[in-house]
Protein: CBD9-like protein
Organism: Coniochaeta ligniaria NRRL 30616
Amino acid sequence: MRWLTSAVGVAALLGAASAQDPDSKQVVDAETGFTFGQYVSDQGISFRIAIPDPAPATGSYDAVVQIAAPIAIGWAGIAWGGSMTYNPLTIVWKSGTDVVLSSRFAFGYYVPPAYTGAVYSILKTGTHVNATHWQITAKCTGCTQWGDDDIGVTTLDPTQQNPLAFAFSTVPPDTPSSNTSSFGIHDSIGHWYHDFAQGTNPGFTALVSKNSEGPGSSNATTTATGGSTGKPTNSTLTPPRPTTVTSKTSSFTSVTLTPTGNSTTTSSKPTPPKPTKPTGPPKPSRPPKPTKTLKPTAPVKPPHSPPFPFPVWTPKPKPTAKTPV
Ligand code: HEM
Ligand SMILES: *[C@@H]1O[C@H](CO)[C@@H](O)[C@H](O)[C@H]1NC(C)=O
Ligand SMILES: *[C@@H]1O[C@H](CO)[C@@H](O)[C@H](O)[C@H]1NC(C)=O
Ligand SMILES: *[C@@H]1O[C@H](CO)[C@@H](O)[C@H](O)[C@H]1NC(C)=O
Ligand SMILES: *[C@@H]1O[C@H](CO)[C@@H](O)[C@H](O)[C@H]1NC(C)=O
Ligand SMILES: *[C@@H]1O[C@H](CO)[C@@H](O)[C@H](O)[C@H]1NC(C)=O
């Protein structure tokens, strides 16, 4: 992997970097044409985010997420709010020559259930499996803003660094072909500060269209290099930033996550109430940027009452006004 060869040089540069610098770097993906902010984990998993330019000053905006993982990675995921729980999770894995994306949202430290508040469109160009890696590129509507009155609404600032988190396991999901598959706990997780401004794309919508059908489509532009086997000839993907993340390795082996029986005839188990949002996750040592737009405290009671064990949480329509509880 060529990035290893320049790791030393990068480390030297980083040594002089200010503490305020993001952990992500700007890269241009020759295959899709998107400009991304990219973070590369110690394991060589690349997490890339592209957004429109301009992005709306308030509210939700679409994002294109691209994840490229070494072939030995069983699943990998992004937590858009920087913690496992109470934020959209984009989980991806390979299934044969396809790559599958699953939208999840965790309410606790067990297999995150499906999340309908984020909707994805997989871009065929930029999604492939080759001998060494699998990669997926998808547009997400609903990854940059989430929440409701109960857990608070969070909006990621498109102009700033946002604290994100990743997780991965070398163990593939139980049923790779299904985006609702269960999977085991991560081998490791990490946190980083991702500069969303690095991934701004004035031609965002056109790029989404251009890449959505893939290079094989008659309606697709033919300038995209690389298909399923193509080589990004002139990618400017930059080397990773080594060891900037406190990645803690779990000693758990792959845990099976059906918390109490996976029978569909669930007993009259009380719905797992959306509990109080747990206190924040471990974050990098520097003070986080102010990215939360509002955060009412207030778990009065769980109106969502998701069924166990795989509840699907759909956020309520966005609150138009903050009503003090
Ligand atoms: C089978 C599914 C999963 C299980 C059983 C599981 C379980 C756990 C457990 C037990 C912890 C440690 C909590 C602590 O130390 O206090 C943890 C932490 C964490 N997990 Fe998961 N996890 C799963 C999936 C995921 C996924 C898909 C992500 C997506 C990125 C993720 C991200 C994290 C992060 C970032 C942390 C650090 C603590 C936090 O942010 O809350 N996990 N997980
Ligand atoms: C799985 O894919 C279907 C079809 O695209 C989609 O409707 C559903 O929301 C996805 N589920 C998850 C958990 O991502
Ligand atoms: C591709 O299809 C879209 C919508 O289906 C259409 O708007 C666009 O003009 C087409 N582009 C080409 C080059 O045919
Ligand atoms: C395989 O895919 C990875 C991730 O997209 C890419 O970086 C690499 O260049 C590809 N290898 C070949 C031989 O195309
Ligand atoms: C990238 O492409 C440009 C123009 O196509 C070329 O001048 C440049 O040398 C290429 N860079 C690399 C690293 O291949
Ligand atoms: C749970 O699922 C496992 C594997 O799918 C199965 O072997 C087991 O019988 C199931 N348990 C129940 C209670 O349905």
